[in-house]
Write a structure and sequence with these properties.
homotetramer, alpha/beta, 12 helices, Dihydrodipicolinate synthase family protein (chains A, B, C, D), lyase (chains A, B, C, D), Aldolase_TIM (chains A, B, C, D), DapA-like (chains A, B, C, D), 4-hydroxy-tetrahydrodipicolinate synthase activity (chains A, B, C, D)
Chain lengths: 318, 318, 318, 318
C-alpha cells in the first residue's frame, strides 16, 4: 500500500469496528466493510478511530482489527488510529500497522492538554515515539477531545513534524479554521497539508468550498460523501448542495453524540454490510422509536437518492 | 401579562439583545423585535438567555432590557433569563421582571455542579431565593453549561418545586429524554410540565413527535418554528418534515457554537428588524465569506419558503 | 490611598465578606476586620475575591462591601476583586472602587478560556474595559478557575498592559513558575512586576525564596504570613521555616477547597474579629468534628506561637 | 498470596514504576522496592496506579511490571491498578495479575462520567468484566480523575458488588466523607469496607481519627505512614501528630501535582532503593532548585526523624 502524503484527497470512510452480538470481533464483517468501501469508490478507510470503539479493544485485538482491514484493502489506503494513553502503546500499534501495509496513522490529543505549549510538545513527543518515517494525521476534534487547537498551533505542529501530512478537521465551528490554514499556505508559512473533514459530514458542503481536500467521516452512505466531494471539486455548487441537502436530515440525525454510532451500525446492518449492529460494552442501543425515525428518514432521502432505499424489496426493485 | 403555566405550548422565540455598533443597548430594535415576534405569531419571547449576551450586561442594563421587552409585549408572554453567579442577583432581577409583568423566569445551572445531589440542591435553593410565586423554567443545556441532568433528576427538581412549570430542553442527544419524561408522566411519577425545545431547532421535527409542546429557540425565522410546531400538532408529518428540511441547511449553519449568534443577528438585520448585527465585546464578527454563505443558504431556502427571500426586491418582486 | 504599583510587596490579606447569620452583610465586622489587618501590620487587603463570596453579592452589595473596606482602611491599600461574567459589570465596580480610593483591582479569567490567544485577548479587552489608569492584578489560579497560564502568556499580558502591576500567583505547582518569571526579568523580556502568592500560604516558605514579593492570601493568622515574609526577606531561612512549619498543619487544614472558608471564618470569629462565621447561601457549614479538629490544631500551634492561643483565658493566662 | 478483604488495614505503599534513564523498565529496582516495602513493615503495595506511570506502559509491559512485583512480594499483598480505557484491557490485566498471585485490583473511573447513574453503571460493568471472584478497590480521586462520587454513590457501588472490598479515599476535602461512610455502616446501610487514604498522606493524621483503616499512598517514607497509622490506632493522638507534623513540610512538597513524582523518585533514589529517578516520557524532571529544597526539607525532618537523614555519611554520622 502506498504511504499517505500531503496530497491525499477524496473520501476516507471512518470504519466502525464490527462486533458479534456477544462482543467478539466480527472479521467477516470487516472484510465486507472493506470491500464495500472499495466498491463505492472510497479512497481510503480509517480504522480504530473514536467511532471505531478503539478504546474497548485490548492491545491484541486492536492489532487484529487493524491488520484485518489492511490485509483486505487492496486499493484503499488504510489509516490506523493509534491514539493511546501512552507512547509505548501508540508506537507498538503504529509499527505493526505500518509493517502490515497501512498507509499512515492518526493521533488524537489526550484530554488533559491545555496550553499551546503542552499541545505542541505532546505531538513532538508522539512523533518521536512513532519515528520519522510514519506519515501521520493530526486529529482536531475539540467537542469530544476537549483540546482546542488554534490554527497557529496546528501550523507549528505541522512545521515541526515533516511526517505530519494530514489534518482531520472536526473543530466546530470550523469553516474559518480551514480558510485560515489555507491562507497560511498562501502566505508561505505553512507547507502543503491534506485537510479532510469530519463531524459526520455536517458541514461538508461548505468545508469543500473553504478548501478541504475531502471527507473523512463515518456517515453510513459514503457514496454521498464521495459525490459531494466530487461535485464540489468539479465546481457544480448547486448540484453538490442539492444532493447534500437531501441527505442532511439523516446526516444530522447520525451526528448526535453517543447515539450516532447506533444509527450508523443500524444502517450498515440494514444495508447488509455488517452482521450485527451491536456495540461492545459499554455501548448504546438503538431504541425502537429511533429505529423507526431512521427508517422514515431513509425513505425520505430515497425520494432523491435511490441508494437510500433500503426497504425490503419486491421482485423488481432497484 | 398572564403567568407561565405547565400548559404553555407553541413557540417562544429566544431574543437576541440588540446593540448599537458602539455596544450601547438599542431600545428601538427591542421594540421592533417584540413587534416582529408578535406579528408572526409567537406565543412568547425569552430574553436575557445565553443567546441574549446576558452576562455582558451589568445589573442595571439587564433590568433595562428585560423591562423594555415586557413593556412592549402585549400579547406575548415574556420569560426573563435570571441565571446568575449568585442568588442575590438572580432574585433581584426576577422580582423586578415579574413586578413589571413578565410571565416567568428561566434558570440555568452554574457550571460547577456535578453530582445529582448538587444539582437538585442548587435548584431547591434557587427556588427559595426567588420565592414560591414566580413560575420558572429549568434550562437543560449540557453542551454549553456542562451540567448533565438525568431524567430522574429533572423529575426530582420538578416534583420538589411546584413553581417549576417548564423544561427548556436542549440536551444533545435528547430525543430519548423527552420520551422518558413523558413516560414518567404516564406512570404518574411526574406532574404536568411544559417541554419546549431548543438547540436552534436542529431536532424540532422529531422532538415534536416525541412529545415536546413546542419550540424555544432563536432561529432567525421563528415563522418556520411556528409552522413546524403547528403542522406536527395537526398530525401532518410529511408536511412538517418537508418544510423543516427546506430550512435545515440554514438551521444547521446557525447552530454553530459561537458563530451562530453572528448569523442570527445578520439575518435579523437583513430582515430589517434590528438595526445592527453588532455584538457587545467580547463578541464574534461575521466574516464576508460566512455572510456570502448565509446569503446563498437564504436563496436556497427561499425556493421553498418565500419568507426567506431577503434579496433587495425589484418593483414586482415576491 | 496610593495606587498600586509594581513595587508592591509584603502581605495583603484576602478578606472574607462577613455576613450576619441571616445572610445580610455585616458592616461592623468589615470595620473590625479592616482594623485588625491594619493593626497586625498588613500592607493591604484584597476584598471581593473568590474567598470573599463575591459572586453571591448583587451589584449594589458588591459596591457596598468594597466601599466600606475602602473607607475604613487608612493605611492599608485595598484591592477590589472585579472579576465578572461581563465587562460592563467589571468596569462599573472598578470605577466606583477607584473613585472611592481603592489602590487597584484584581481580575480572574472566566473558566471557558483555553488557548493562549483566548487568554491574552481576554485580558487585553478587560484592560480596555476598565481603562488604562486603573492598576490591576492578574489572578493565576488554575485549580479553581481551570485556566492555565504559561509563564510566556503571563509575560505577554503584562507587556501588553502597562497598568498590570501585580501577579497573584496561585498556580499549583508554582515554584518553577516564579523562577521562570524572575528569569524573564533578568533577561530583560519582562518588566518589573510584583508577585504575591496565594494558595492559602501552603508554599509561602519556598515561594519567598524563589522570588515572591510577599503573600496575598486568607490564612486566618495574617501575622504568620507577615512574619514569614519578613524573616525570609531578612535572610533568616531557618527561622522562617521554623515558624512556618509550626503553622503548617493548620494552613493545610484551611486550604481544603470548599471547607477552607468555614475554617477561616470560624477562626476569625473565635478571634473576636467577625461576629458570625455564617456564609451566605449556598455555603458550607463547619461540622462539630471539624471545629474540634481546628481547636486541636490551634492548641498545637499555640505551643510555638502564642498568638494561636484562642482558648477562653483564665485570669493569669498568656 | 491471600486475597484482599474488607478487613484490610495498615499501610499499602503506592509504588512508582522504576525506569532506567533511557526509559526501559528497571526490574532490579522493582525487586529492591518490593524488599524495601516489606522490610519497613508495609502491609501491601499497590502497583500501576496513577503514580506508577501506568498509562505509559504498553500491555505487555504492564503485565511484566505487575508480575515482577507479585513474584517478589512474599509477605506483602499486591494490588494491581487495572484502570483502562476499555474493559477488555482491564479484564486481561486483572486475570493475569490474579493468576500470578495478586491480592486484588484497583479501578479508577474514566473521566467522562458525570451523573450518579453513569458512575454506578460503569462500576457495575467493570465488575462484570473482571468477574465476581476478583477483590477490587474503588478509587475515589476527583482532583485528578474529575469524577465526583457522593457517599451515597459509593455505598450503592459497594452494595451492588460484593467483591468491592476497599475504598481508596482521596477526595479533597475528604474528612466528612469518611465520617459519612462510617455512619452508613453504623446505621446498617453499608457493609464492611476497608478505607485506605491517599492524597500523599496530607490529611492522614485526621483521616485516621475519622475512621480510616490505614494509608495507601506514595510518600517516600512509608515508615512515617506506618508509624502514624499505628500511633493513631493505639490512641496516641499527640504522638501521632507530633511525628506527622515533622514530616508535613515534605509531605506537602511531595503532594504537588505533576512535580510530586519527581520528588518521590528523587528521594527513593537518594535512599538507594531505585537506581534512577527518571520518568518515562512524557515526564517531569526535578530542577536543581527543587532538589536543593528537598534536601533542605529532608535535613529538617531528620532533626526529629533520623530515618530522613540521607546525607552522605561520614564515619561517625548520626
Amino acid at each position: 500500500m502506498t504511504k499517505l502524503t500531503a496530497q491525499a484527497a477524496g473520501t476516507f470512510a471512518i470504519a466502525p469496528t464490527p462486533f458479534h452480538d456477544d462482543g467478539r470481533i466480527d472479521e467477516a464483517s470487516i472484510d465486507r466493510l472493506t470491500d464495500f468501501y472499495t466498491d463505492v469508490g472510497c479512497d481510503g478507510v480509517t480504522v480504530l478511530g473514536i467511532l471505531g470503539e478503539a478504546p474497548k479493544l485490548d492491545a491484541a485485538e486492536a492489532e487484529q482489527v487493524a491488520l484485518r482491514f489492511v490485509k483486505r484493502a487492496k486499493k484503499l489506503q488504510v489509516i490506523v488510529g493509534v491514539s493511546a494513553p501512552g507512547f509505548a502503546t501508540m508506537r507498538s500499534l503504529a509499527k505493526k500497522s505500518m509493517d502490515a501495509g497501512a498507509a499512515g496513522v492518526m493521533i488524537a490529543p489526550p484530554p488533559h492538554l491545555r496550553t499551546d505549549d503542552q499541545i505542541i510538545s505532546y505531538f513532538k513527543q508522539a512523533q518521536e515515539a512513532i519515528g520519522d518515517d510514519i506519515p501521520w494525521v493530526l486529529q482536531d476534534y475539540p467537542l469530544t477531545l476537549t483540546v482546542v487547537f488554534t490554527p497557529a498551533v496546528i501550523r507549528k505542529i505541522v512545521m515541526d513534524s515533516p511526517s505530519c501530512v494530514m489534518l482531520k478537521h472536526e473543530d466546530w465551528p470550523g469553516l474559518e479554521k480551514i480558510s485560515t490554514l489555507r491562507n497560511f499556505q498562501k502566505d508561505g508559512s505553512l507547507r502543503p497539508l491534506s485537510i479532510l473533514v469530519g463531524n459526520g459530514g455536517l458541514f461538508l458542503d461548505f468545508e469543500m468550498e473553504r478548501g478541504a481536500d475531502g471527507a473523512m467521516t463515518g456517515y453510513a452512505f459514503p457514496e454521498l460523501l464521495i459525490d459531494v466531494v466530487n461535485l464540489s471539486k468539479a465546481g457544480k455548487r448547486d448540484a453538490a448542495h442539492d444532493l447534500f441537502d437531501a441527505h442532511l436530515p439523516l446526516i444530522r440525525y447520525e451526528q448526535q453524540p453517543g447515539v450516532g454510532l447506533t444509527v450508523r451500525k443500524y444502517v450498515l446492518q440494514k444495508r447488509g454490510i455488517i452482521s450485527s449492529s451491536a456495540q461492545r460494552k459499554p455501548g448504546a442501543v438503538i431504541t425502537p422509536q429511533a429505529r423507526a425515525e431512521v427508517d422514515y428518514l431513509l425513505s425520505r432521502v430515497a425520494r432523491v437518492d435511490r441508494r437510500a432505499n433500503l426497504q425490503p424489496q419486491s421482485s423488481a426493485a432497484g
